[in-house]
Amino acid sequence: MSIPHFRGVPMARSRLRAAVVAGLTALSLAALSAAAGAPAAAAPPTHDEQVTFQEWSRYPDWRQGTHQGTLAIPGVRTGITMLLPAGKRDYADPYTGVTKSWNYSTWTSPVTEVGFDATELVASWNAETPAGTWIQVEMQGTYNTGGQTPWYTMGRWASGDTDIKRTTVNRQGDPWSTIWTDTFSIDDAANGVLLHAYQLRLTLYRAPGQWRSPRVWMLGAMSSFVPDRFTVTPSAGGIAWGTELAVPRFSQNIHTGEYPEYDGGGEAWCSPTSTAMVVQYYGRGPSAQDTAWVDPSYADPQVDHAARMTYDYAYEGAGNWPFNTAYAASFPGLDAKVTRLHSLDEAERFIKAGIPVITSQSFLSEELDGAGYGTSGHLFVIVGFTAEGDVIINDPASSSNDAVRNVYPREQFEQIWLRTKRYRANGTVASGSGGIAYLIKPWWKPWPVVPGSTNW
């Protein structure tokens, strides 16, 4: 999760997350000479960081969990829904002051070993929530010491905002870990207490007397452990050089001052603006009826709509990572998740497959030639690579839609995206995003296959 900014204007406010323990680095691939001088990967990648994404998205997956009133539906991309309520609960919405009763049912995953001891976890989900319904996602971790975390709330979510105000839950933690908005984080990896396994619990809610229920077709989590570092070894590249995807271009800055109740456009809307670009690339997006609430004098109402429908009322912003991917997946036929990538080589594989990649990064203005600004947190879209391997970016922190396309130096980009630590202008140390990426695609399009990679 990240907060954007204007070009050349300092960040208005810092990220809610106090620190990010885990991050990513990449070790270069071996390279061979290739035609036109572009190097080609010659050996499987090796990494000293560990990242994995584990998900439940198939009928056999859902059958493995514990059902209380939920039903796994046979078929492709069908998921689970409420069969019979397991009970009724009151929910006092802290942002409306209204208390309502809701029927609920639950599905709980098996205890799932990460495969290594991790320092961070970010959950993702793909769901539809008809009017009168919503979902809650929780996580309980098991430490490598055998102890367990409390059940942490990772998100209360609905695709709309008339039944509940979608939110995360602040001030969750125990002596070893904390929830920073959308991310489970080990407080101090040096203590040796790390995340070894976890369960996810999904609670489906619907209004009493209503038959329509939420349906969830993917629930998953990215877990990672990455050593702290200020620099990364450049990747070899050559996989998608000379390829550029025709992703629409939207500027966040032309929305400056719009809808203060959703954080006011401009610098605060990089994440929903990036998400809106990729959703429209696939020919999806809100209908004219969906965006009828937007002032007709505002350009690109789909950006305003994305900001409203990703807004996290606890965080007070539209930069919640899984809320953005869940929003993307709320459109017919799209699947989406939050993960970390190991390198630009991996990003190239997505571009080669026709899948844009939304990335999170932070940097000083002098660390990224051509950007003209610095940021403590910003998202933009990788849409391609030049013939020389530099990164073609749709950067929403631009003065107009026409200025959104930018080319940034490959090695500089890889540093600011993948590092876990960086220096502020005053010399103090801050965190880096560690290679966070939103991956969005049509459900029928396969993910790229990289032998040995388990991070998507």
From TrEMBL:
The lineage of its organism: Bacteria, Bacillati, Actinomycetota, Actinomycetes, Micromonosporales. The keyword RNA-binding does not apply. Residues 1-42 form the signal peptide. The keyword Signal applies. It comes from the Bacteria. InterPro entries: Peptidase_C39-like, Peptidase_C39_single_dom. Pfam families: Peptidase_C39_2. Residues 245-397 form the Peptidase C39-like domain. Keywords: Signal. This is Membrane protein.
